[in-house]
Amino acid sequence: MSATSKNPHNDSDKPKLIRDTFSMPDSDYQLISEILERSPAMAARSTKSEIVRAGLKVLYNMDDEDLSQVLTQVRRLKTGRPAKRRAKSNAR
């Protein structure tokens, strides 16, 4: 790698931020809360975003066999937004 090439996984450069939305079961969301409660004891207060990004780095660094094993433990969710309720019309 040349000195001028950039590592896409390097946090030293100011990254372009991407906003995204995703869903997760309440039990997984609770795990984030539990990790947040533990983080002050580790000399740093983290955000939910930092917890998710740290988890991605751990997954990225796993070998393929371990990654496959972890991913099979994650329950597949129905994707998409809930259907919008139709407003009741009073016209008859």
SSE blueprint:
Blueprint: H1 26-38, H2 48-60, H3 64-72
Structure notes:
There is one protein chain. The chain is mainly α and 92 residues long. The protein has a domain at 26-72. The chain has three helices and no strands. Residues 1-6 have low confidence and may be disordered.
Q: Uncertain segments of ≥5 residues (pLDDT<50)?
A: 1-6
What is the overall shape?
extended
Give the radius of gyration. 20 Å
Distance between the termini: 72 Å
What proportion strand?
under 5%
Q: How would you concisely characterize the structure shown here?
A:
The chain has 92 residues and is mainly α. The protein has three helices and no strands.
Keywords:
single chain; 92 residues; mainly alpha; 38% helix
